[in-house]
Structures are given as C-alpha cells and as structure tokens.
Design a protein that fits this description.
With about 130 residues, the chain is α+β, with helices and mostly antiparallel strands. The protein is built from three helices and nine strands; from the N terminus they run E-E-E-H-E-E-H-E-E-E-H-E. About 20% of the residues lie in helices and about 30% in strands.
C-alpha cells in the first residue's frame, strides 16, 4: 500500500504476456495523467524515473509511480514507435464536481510539445492495474 500523503498518477497499466510490454489501458479523466493530458491509451511505458521497467510486473511498477502528493514523476513512453518523455505531478483523483472546471482549464492552456505526438489506437483491456 501507500503511505498517508501519497498519491499516484492515475493510470491503468496492463502487461502483455506475449511480449512483456507494459501498455497504458486506462487514463481516468480525474487522475493526474488524465488532467495533464500527456498519456494516451496504447502508449507503452518503458521507464519510470530513469529506471527501465520493461519486463517488470505491473505490481512492481505501481510503487514507482506512487509517491508524495505534489511531487513529479517522469515516465518514458513509446507512442506509435516514437520515444516520448513526460513528467506528471502526483495527485489524488479530482472530485466529479471539480472535474469539468479542471478539464476546461487544461484545454485553455497552450499545447505542450510532450503531447503533440498522435494518439495511438485504443488497446483492449482485460484486467488493468491501477497506479
């Protein structure tokens, strides 16, 4: 589990048994990644904080994504074969009443080069792990 005052990045991951890749299968809109808009379903997670996570189980990766609320975590991804690096602030999920205001605020911000890569095709999810 996580300690009081800790949060994750709000992303569902699934490990492929075929090639051991860790794929983003869920990006809830009220979580840190959903609000930041940097991760897409279908992205392949290859690193967390500079650590190569390829071949690791989702349960081993989740603790790397969880940390003190308000701190940043960097992630290395593959999106449509291109390397993408993102940094997300860990936070608790946003309440449903606050979410529309937060999404409107995010949409009002200038585009980030981190999110300029085209979104990948949706990936099927059987039982995603939450982090």
């Amino acid at each position: 589990g996580s300690a009081p005052g800790d949060s994750g990045v709000g992303v569902g991951l699934e490990r492929s048994s075929a090639d051991n890749t860790i794929t983003v299968v869920k990006v809830p809109p009220g979580g840190a990644c959903g609000l930041a808009g940097f991760l897409c379903v279908g992205d392949i997670l290859v690193g967390v904080e500079g650590k190569d996570i390829r071949g690791m189980a989702c349960r081993e990766i989740a603790p790397l994504l969880i940390g003190r609320t308000g701190t940043r975590v960097s992630m290395s991804l593959l999106r449509n074969g291109a390397a993408v690096s993102v940094s997300v602030v860990r936070m608790s999920a946003v309440d449903a009443e606050v979410l529309p205001k937060a999404v409107a605020y995010r949409k009002s911000l200038p585009s980030s080069s981190s999110s300029s890569a085209p979104a990948p095709a949706a990936a099927a999810a059987a039982a995603p792990a939450a982090a």
